[in-house]
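Holo prediction — fe (ii) ion.
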Amino acid sequence: MSITETSRRHVVLGAAALGFAIPACAQPQVRRDLYNGELDYLAKEYAGRAEALPASLQLSPANEPGERMSISGRCFSWQTGKPAAGVIIYAYHTDNSGSYHGGPAGTRHARLRGWMRTGEDGAYAFTSIKPAPYPDRSMPAHIHLTVLEPGLPPYWIDDIVFEGEFRVDPSYRAAQGNRGGDGIIRLKRSNGLWTGTRDIRLERHPT
Ligand SMILES: [Fe+2]
């Protein structure tokens, strides 16, 4: 155990003895499987234009069949809990028939996909159509999210899925790793638009 680790342990134990609450998120575990080489190619997609990426995106065409949906959230540092700026978020999902058909050649990614970059307030947002479960009904309707922090390898986080909907049940919840925080969100509908919030707690990186 290093001096730093020893000091931190003493602080934690001392605070606990005095009855101070230690935030559960203060010292998250390092996930040894945080990086996935499959995702490395993603960084190449925005190379040279990262600063041009919008914080808010219209992800699907305006005439895309399906119910309108708007997702927003903020990225937070695992260390400080403060909003994290300059974080690139890649999102993709199925269409309203549960298909990824029409995605980029040579990838397994979807036609409905897009890139955002958080502003100083850590916020991101996208509008799209509400995805449907795969035709084989093997899992809930979901939205894949990948996070790319400045200068660090990309990593995927828990999918966005919709509380109370098909196959979002206790077994699904129990199987989630809470990568990037909880991906199970509750949608609300108003004036024909589904809205939901998916905040992202950035992961602690392996050193
Ligand atoms: Fe998927």
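READOUT: The chain has three helices and eleven strands.
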